[in-house]
């Protein structure tokens, strides 16, 4: 099914004045009877002129639009088939800053994601990302597409919630590193219950998720936010120490270490280990969880946050925490969203959880 709306107000008076009024349009669409039949298979043909406001409405499974740059620096829409699945992949790569980080949310390989992104760029006719060793950075065209893709995403989520009826309206996304996400997951009952009337999504990545662009509502970070649009409160500190498996075998007996390769090699503890014991690293893993398994199996020693190492009965701390690796822990939100009841409720509970376990996070428990 294709629904076309013209660019002139005379053709659709009062329907959409500007793209920022999209949510108002969602409520109107919810009352249209034909949505009852095929809510997930809608297509939208969008056309808009070069006016100051984009008189368009994006509500689609297969969003039919394209951005065409003009010399005045303004964009207009023309007809083009862009699949909603491709837009979702684009959103994940843009928000997480690269292919590797997006593999976890999309469940696709980095190679497949790369091909899909390249195909989308060819379809748009412009590069959407600048490829760098540290990740993917959006081009100006990519930034523009991101804003419009987020509008499509909001429309689809609104339609899905309306169709399913019983799901709560608000999703609270919490971003954190792998270890902190695992800790939060283990204590989910202290952060969320069914009776809260909200949903919680964990965004696990070693990269910093852009809260300013609403890629997450809450971030658990190792430093105080400096961006003026972010608000933060300190929940405590996190200590790191060297740990060993409990059996004096193999690499542990030889005094060797287990290092980290890949994206996880950029975290501070991995860099410290490389700087101080790089010549004694015999085995490496490409993520922190595989490193823990290697240490527990006797491959060597390595560095872990104390709340991780002291909680694992297979590991034993062999020295006091390393002072230069101690970090602050901050609960970060967007300053415009921090007082929203769902966000505040989850942020308050995460803060209380972290503060209640500060002896564990600081490494103040006795060495076993």
TrEMBL record:
It comes from the Bacteria. Coiled coil: none annotated. Belongs to the LysR transcriptional regulatory family. PROSITE patterns: HTH_LYSR. Residues 82-139 form the HTH lysR-type domain. Keywords: DNA-binding, Transcription, Transcription regulation. It comes from Mesorhizobium muleiense. GO terms for molecular function: DNA binding; DNA-binding transcription factor activity. This is DNA-binding transcriptional regulator, LysR family.
